Amino acid sequence: MSITRRTVLAGTAAAAGAALAGPALAKAPMSGQQNAGFHRFKIGSFEVIALHDGVAVRDMPKGFVRNASDADVSAAFAELGLPADKLTITFTALAVNTGDKVVLFDAGNGGAGGPVGNVAKNLAAAGIQPGDVDVHAFSHFHGDHIGGVKAADGKLVFPNAEIVVPDAEWAFWMDDAKMNNAPEAMKGGFQLVRKQFADMAGKVRRQSWEKEVVPGITAIQADGHTPGHTAYLISSGNQQMMFVADITNHPGIFARRPEWQAIFDMDPQRAIDTRKRLLDRAAADKIRLSFYHAPFPATGFVVKDGAGYDFQQALWQNTL
Ligand SMILES: [Zn+2]
To answer: What is the edge-to-edge ordering of all strands in the sheet holding 46-59?
Structure first.
């Protein structure tokens, strides 16, 4: 082909056009959205659903672990690939459909969605509407577990559910003398418990430890983090798992170092004893665990390793 003035001009225009448009665009647009945060697996004939409430990132508080230096705590976070100067906390509730009942454990932080407050939305994305929850059971009464009981208008988010609360937890937080004698920083916690539950005092079921909540689900004593902190053993066929809630904060840090006392544990020594007792049991019996503050989907196994336990996430052992 001979080069004429015309082909030179056309080539220049094409080059200019390409420069204006930039590199070729992908056919699919960027999403800017995360996928719905639920993850389903089976325990015997039960369907279990991990429900992502969200993630909160705050500045690392000074003295986050009472009996470890801030430098050691930051190093432990960095070892997991987490920012060393931030406290990154994931929140994961759990639902179980036993075939007869839908049982939801804890409620998330509440709020209208956003970084946290997504339990009801993600449960609906998994095909279970708020009105379908039959039993709403709680591990303990910290705000990240009971904030989602009611919407901003004061109505119950899960309107048909029977509320099941640990007896010892109710006894502690509903005690006016304990509220009045509590340090100022704890008073908000007492008030939130009253806001969420006081108007239902006659209706809630106060659950004792080592007793069944529904067939196949048993409340397990796990106090220390709070006075009535409770785990739930979920059994079907020859399989079992345990919703252990806050026996650790991030298990990659606190199962690994069971003696560390995070500032959230109200009775630190009791929390250590409970942590070791339940992690020992889970390691020995190979019980799948669901931690409230593990990275989503927050479920896996622990194996004993020296003085601690390694948390091994069970991401893909989810045959339905
Ligand atoms: Zn918590």
So the answer is: 38-43, 46-59, 86-97, 102-105, 135-137, 162-166, 205-207
Ligand 1 centroid from CA 317, angstroms: 25
Contact between 126 and 120 under an 8 Å Cβ cutoff? The reply is no
Distance of CA 145 from the midpoint of ligand 1 (Å): 6
CB 293 within 8 A of CB 106: no
Neighbours of ion ligand 1 (CB under 5 A): 144, 246
Cβ contacts of 199 within 8 Å, gap of 6 or more: none
In this prediction the pTM is 0.90
In the chain, what are the domains?
A: 39-313 (3.60.15.10)
Strands 299-305 and 288-291, sheet pairing:
antiparallel
Show the tokens assigned to 11.
Answer: 């080539």
- Give yes or no for residue 1 having a pLDDT over 50: no
The answer to whether the beta carbons of residues 268 and 276 sit under 8 Å apart is no
Interval 188-232: pLDDT, tens: 999 999 999 999 999 999 999 999 999 999 999 999 999 999 999
Q: What sign does the dihedral 208-213-217-222 (CA atoms) show? A: negative
pLDDT at residue 22 in the model: 75
Residue 36 CA to its chain's centroid (Å): 15
